Amino acid sequence: MGAATSKQSEPTTTRPQSDPYDKQANHLQFGRSLLNHLDKKSLAAATSGGENGGAENVAQIDAGVQEKIRSELERLRKEEEDVRRQIQEALERENAEIESSQPGGKNKNSNILKAELDQVRARIERHKSVKDLSSLHPGLDKAREAVVKCYRERPDRSLDCWKETQAFKEAVASAEKAFIASCS
Q: What digits encode the pLDDT tens for the residues 91-100?
């Protein structure tokens, strides 16, 4: 009895089995996703009026989307340009306010700044030309030589050279004062 029930569940074919291609066609099965995909394509072609109508419809939609993208991109570029211009104007106003708030800020232009720069360069060149301090401050060399002589004569008792060291410090201080006075 069990054999009879299992045979009843098998489908019976009424076709003649003489053609070998028919045997292979009976065993061919399609996946559910392929069938759904084909069904959607046939439905889209039917609603659009055929295969060519569907392609034209897609092209029209694509052209419309591209046009919207172009117009939005152009609008964003204009908006960005406006923002940049506003930022530039705000920075220019801020710089003008800062310059006007500084003393002499309105009157300083590139010519005045160039003249001030030339004055600073002239001072630097003048001080570069002064290389020999001994000719400008002869007491400095004498005081230095006295300290060196004292240290050489008393290598074990360097503290005895405090008078010479003090005289050298005073000569250096006077040379510094003269140098600072020449800078201004």
A: 888 877 777 7
More confident residue, 27 or 183: 183
Cα 29 from chain centre = 59
pTM for the structure as a whole? 0.30
Q: Given the structure tokens 């295969």, which residue do they identify? A: 51
Across the range 137-155, mean pLDDT stands at 88
Largest CA distance in the chain: 138
Cα(45)–Cα(90) distance, integer angstroms: 58
pLDDT in tens, 46-84: 555 554 556 778 888 888 889 999 999 999 999 999 999
For residues 154 and 160, is the Cβ–Cβ distance under 8 A?
A: yes
Report yes or no: 147 and 168 within 8 Å, Cβ to Cβ: yes
Q: What is the DSSP letter of 160?
A: G
**Count of CB atoms within 10 A of residue 161's CB?**
19
With b meaning 16 or more CB within 10 Å and e meaning fewer, what string describes 15-40?
A: eeeeeeeeeeeeeeeeeeeeeeeeee
Q: Which two tokens stand for residue 142?
A: 């004498």
